[in-house]
Amino acid sequence: MTAALPTDPGFALRHLLARVQFEDRGYSSPCWVWHGPRNHHGYGRTCVPGLGKNVRIHRATYQLFVGPIPSGLEIDHLCRVRECCNPSHLEAVTRLENMRRAAALLVPATHCARGHEFTPENTYRNSSGGRGCRHCLKEWRKRRRARNNGGGGCPSKADAPVQAMSLTHDSAASTR
Ligand SMILES: [Zn+2]
Ligand SMILES: [Zn+2]
Fold this sequence. Notes:
single chain, 176 residues, two-stranded antiparallel ribbon, 5 helices, 34% helix, 18% strand, globular
């Protein structure tokens, strides 16, 4: 397997994003939810021009937006949505760390990833059956309104890498 970038990242990206929808799944920013084929583990898979056949989409977007995946590391979903490929929700971690985080999930969290308490008033069920934080949802809607401000509501490619830069670190830190 190669970690090299595709020769035409723009083309690979368009191919991927054509089957991605931006959905709020209760994380601090919307998930890029893949609506194409998935493997039996629930991870999206597709053929990405330049990256290979049958690549996992979250590995593909990580490589396209963040960079090569260091050898020996796995890509962890900070949002816990397997079909999500938002690069700001992805982090390259060791297998051990990935397993440690998965184990921590078995204990129901009392607070969301941003530190708001899951009180009955602040909790809702999202479309995938997971728990969502109303406070974060409200924040996100506010940001979305500000961003769309007259636009067509279509997330622009341009703001994605910026999100990736600004959110990766604080959201990663709060899971530790
Ligand atoms: Zn996500
Ligand atoms: Zn929250």
